[in-house]
Amino acid sequence: MTITQQAKDIAKRTSGAYSFDRFRNWEAVTQCLLNLGLDDLQTEAVLISKWTRWACDVDDSGATYGRHTSTAMLKFMRGISKSQIEALTFETFGEIRGNK
């Protein structure tokens, strides 16, 4: 997976997120969300939410703390609807921009 500058910038802004240290590569998690079609604001909302923690909690890969991958996030996001992403973004930032 190629990490874009966009993903690097968002990853840097969210590096203080609660579950940042649960993942092996935060930039890859960020890129995964962007690849799913989330815009910058939606991606940031997900990264600073409890969803990242829950993605690790339900990860069945056997990964230990700090070793979860973007695949755990991808699997978790498969169960999330567009309206849930919009609601999270609104709850977090008070706005919804939608996809680019």
Write a brief structural summary:
The chain is mainly alpha-helical. The protein has helices spanning 5-13, 26-35, 40-47, 51-57, 70-77, 82-93.
Shape: globular
Low-confidence stretches: none
Please identify the structural class as seen in this structure.
mainly alpha
Instruction: Estimate the strand proportion.
Output: under 5%
What do these coordinates show?
By secondary structure, this protein is an all-alpha fold. The protein has one domain. It is 54% helix and 0% strand. It contains 6 helices and no strands. It has helices at residues 5-13, 26-35, 40-47, 51-57, 70-77, 82-93. Helix 2 crosses helix 3 and helix 2 (26-35) runs parallel beside helix 5 (70-77). The longest helix has 12 residues, at 82-93.
Walk me through the topology.
Layout: H1 5-13, H2 26-35, H3 40-47, H4 51-57, H5 70-77, H6 82-93
Helix pairs in contact: 1-2, 1-3, 2-3, 2-5, 3-6, 4-5
Question: Any descriptors?
Answer:
about 100 residues; about 0% strand; mainly alpha
